[in-house]
Amino acid sequence: MTAADGFHFHHIGVFFQILFDVAIIPLIVGIGVFTCILPYVFYTLGLRDVPAGTATALGIIEPLSATVFSVAFLGEKLTAPLIIGMVLILAAVFALAKQK
């Protein structure tokens, strides 16, 4: 669909048909629980038992690990902006570590 096509109301009907299909509700709940709720709960429970500086460093490294895993397992291309971002994240972690 291009911008020239305009907006078609039948797309809304298809969306709501998928959204309100009862068979898909357990899948949506499962995705929410297993990809959002449980990881967040385990992450925060784990951070409870570490010093504040370590928790900060782990929080900063989280986007770096997501990038590494996406390159390694999902076939994401390692581009210059990703590399620059990874270097900046590591520099911030090392700067925090030197302050101790």
Structure description:
With 100 residues, the chain is mainly α. It has one domain. 75% of the residues lie in helices and 0% in strands. It has 4 helices and no strands. The radius of gyration is 21 Å and the shape is flat.
Protein traits:
single chain, 100 residues, mainly alpha, 4 helices, 75% helix
Topology:
Elements: H1 10-19, H2 25-48, H3 52-73, H4 80-98
What is the compact description of this entry?
By secondary structure, this protein is mainly alpha-helical. It has helices spanning 10-19, 25-48, 52-73, 80-98.
- Largest sheet geometry: none
Could you state the oligomeric state of the chains shown?
A: single chain
Give the tally of structural domains: 1
Residues in helix, %: over 70%
Beta-strand fraction estimate: under 5%
